[in-house]
Amino acid sequence: MPLSHHTPRKPLVRGCKKGVVPRDQSLRDHEDWGWGTGQPSQRSLAEAARDGHLVQLQQALAAGADPNARDSEGRLSLSLACHRGHLACVQQLVDAGASVEGADPFGSSTVLIVSAAMGHADCVKLLLDAGAEVGRTDVEGTTALMWARSAEHEECVAILQAAEAALIALSPTPGEAAAAWRPRLAASAAQEQARPTSPPAGPVER
After folding, report:
1. Cβ contacts of 109 within 8 Å, gap of 6 or more
2. pLDDT-derived band of residue 3, with 50, 70 and 90 as boundaries?
3. What are the two backbone dihedrals, phi and then psi, of residue 195, each rounded to the nearest 5 degrees?
4. Quick one: average pLDDT of 1-18?
5. 20 to 30 A Cα–Cα from 1, which one of 30, 65, 102, 199?
6. Treating both helix axes as pointing N-terminal to C-terminal, what angle do 54-62 and 42-51 enclose, rounded to 10 degrees?
């Protein structure tokens, strides 16, 4: 269960003194849960998402943490989980109501872009199934498909291409939809000819 103002602190302190648990880390984790306030820490949720600690993430959510919580640098918990490919944490956050259209302050990279750029095909598929917009771009106008191509993540490329094709096919005016998408597809092809040497600003600033 999550720590709260009702949780005894002495056993933790004794454990630190005996060297059973590292003092700095354990006390910091203890305080992250909102010691003395009875409130879950948003930072704790972000750290659990980043590190793939599913149980801690579930506890924070159950205690009332916002699924759209950001860390101290403004990065979304969902983005942190997507960056490292923690699929179970991604699923848990999406189920709890985390926005699949959220973006980080670094280049406005969406969670879909982060997943595609890092090559986490399972996360890409999950986000698309949850309604993430395949055509969203970062601040430089780059889509998730473009970044997947540039990083040579072929499984992600295939998933995103299929999502784009399905979007065009389902449009009530397929001709107009295709015309609207043509510049993006052309840009994607052009970018493949000059692959960037690094992922988008969002994913790598971790």
Report:
1. 79, 103, 117, 138, 200, 201, 202, 203
2. very low
3. -65, 130
4. 37
5. 102
6. 160
